[in-house]
Design a protein that fits this description.
The chain has four helices and five strands. The protein is of the alpha+beta class. The protein has one domain: 2-Layer Sandwich (Phosphorylase Kinase, domain 1). The longest helix is centred in the C-terminal third of the chain and has 21 residues.
């Protein structure tokens, strides 16, 4: 898979990311020829999603491209494979964004303002599309 995404790079490690219910999510770390490393996510949608929409991976990839193109905060879509050669179903590879879920933000007012600002941006961009 790494050879398809970034042929001169080599795979350093992989690890499963837990918590998702609609897709199998695996993180990859690769090393580029210049020695820099890059982390990414492989998302393989589950049976329920595929039954509802067999093209869910392509739709998600396109949505992430649109979000990126209008400057909304979203992971960068890196690769879409619909060939069935690596896995029997389509999958996408996206940028890994380091972070953690904040269930109790330290500054709730700022947290709410950030959420509201981004929601407003999403909705205003949707009207333009």
């Amino acid at each position: 898979m790494v050879q398809r995404i970034d042929p001169p790079s080599k795979l350093l490690c992989t690890w499963e990311l837990k918590g998702g219910v609609s897709a199998q999510v695996t993180a990859l770390e690769i090393e580029r020829p210049n020695g820099q490393t890059r982390k990414m996510i492989v998302r393989r949608h589950g049976e329920t999603d595929l039954k509802q929409n067999p093209h869910v991976a392509a739709y998600e990839f396109k949505l992430l491209q649109i979000l990126q193109s209008v400057g909304l905060p979203a992971p960068t879509p890196l690769y879409l494979d619909q060939s069935g050669e690596v896995f029997p179903t389509s999958y996408i590879v996206i940028e890994l964004i380091e972070g953690q879920t904040e269930f109790v933000p330290s500054d709730l007012a700022d947290y709410i303002i950030q959420m509201a600002t981004n929601l407003a941006r999403i909705h205003s961009r949707c009207l333009e599309l």
